[in-house]
Automatic annotation (TrEMBL):
Pfam families: Big_10 (PF17964), YkuD (PF03734). PROSITE patterns: LD_TPASE. The lineage of its organism: Bacteria, Bacillati, Actinomycetota, Actinomycetes, Micromonosporales. Residues 1-17 form the signal peptide. PANTHER family: L,D-TRANSPEPTIDASE (PTHR30582), L,D-TRANSPEPTIDASE YCIB-RELATED (PTHR30582:SF2). GO terms for molecular function: acyltransferase activity; peptidoglycan L,D-transpeptidase activity. This is L,D-TPase catalytic domain-containing protein. GO terms for biological process: cell wall organization; peptidoglycan-protein cross-linking; regulation of cell shape. CDD domains: LDT_IgD_like_2 (cd13432), YkuD_like (cd16913).
Amino acid sequence: MALVLAVVAPLALTACSADEGAPAFVAPTQSAPEPAPASTEPLALAVTPAEAAKNQPVSTEIGTQVSGGQVQSVTMTDAAGAAVAGAMRADGTSFVPAKPLKYGKKYSATVVAVGPDGKTMEKKTSFTTMGKPSKKTGAGLYLFSDRTYGVAMPVVLEFTSPVPESARAAVERRLFVTVDPPQPGIWHWSSPLQVMYRGPQYWQTGTKITVRAALEGVPMGNGRYGDQDRLGVGNIAKEKIELIVDNATKRMQVFKNDAVVKTMPVSLGKTKTPSSSGTMVIMDKQQKTVFDTTDDPGNVDRYVVNIEYAQRLTWGGEYIHAAPWSVKDQGVRNVSHGCVNVSMANAVYLFNLTSIGTPVTVKGTERKIKPANGWTAWSVGWADYVKGSALPVPPELAALGDPQPSASALPSPSVTPTP
């Protein structure tokens, strides 16, 4: 198992995950660092916060800057002398406490660095944390350990207040992701209210993703601070399921482990209400629901209709769902309000096959999916995706590109729709 730090990484916010079903701490650490190469540079060590610093966030880390050697140990204690658990970042730049510190309390730390000749240097510091802030920003983390997700499931954090650009790098540094088996990933800000994490290709089947969003006390901009840490676990399904919808043929291809297992007719959004093109993921599944647009004053085409086997693709209201009223149009013409209409039998089949996080690619419609209109991490290629990180992306990671041919790149089925 290897840790990937912040760069490597709205069902309503009532669906937020705090710490249920998650491990107590995702340690931002890897194996012990390699011994420092021989150097003639004298050993030097500096630590932060500065001695006697006051009003520090409860997310404070013990920063270490070493030349002519490397950090050997960091010991942190509270005012009573009790040890504070934590671990070093993989790059050795700081010690991260395993839990948020307490408000209005004093802490001390001792850092020991060692040079290639075995000589050591010790630095001590102490500081006091700030009182409880009056303005906080909450977050929703959509990973629950009792669920199985599709291979395109991004790690999604949604915030209750906008995070300005000036605060995003600090926030991103506090987002720790462990992927087992190891796979690279990057965080991407699709809006001030949403940040998502994915790799250059879909997760391997059977992957386990563990996340610590260590945001309690982190300055979030505009005088706000993170309200609490959140922990989540995502288990990726044992089979790769992918749905490809082509407007040109009015057909959906269903792929299992990259092989076509079913093709079915569909009806997409009519010209005035087109479906969105792009790669989306299923965000929610409801066997029965009601579509009610009567509360939308800007919608001249208002309706209330009972829906079965609905699978949500966008916050704007696009779903895959059973539409027995449009069976005669499926495979022939588009008549929906933007949804992917299928027959009752096909809707049941898809509902039983897919998971939240299953990728759904729609091709050839009149409009493209808008960023943050759902979990849109896969709606752009890797080269554009990495530009959404608030932290520098290592060149070797940025250069990975989009290596998979995913099923969405395969030729469309050669089907001539019935006139």
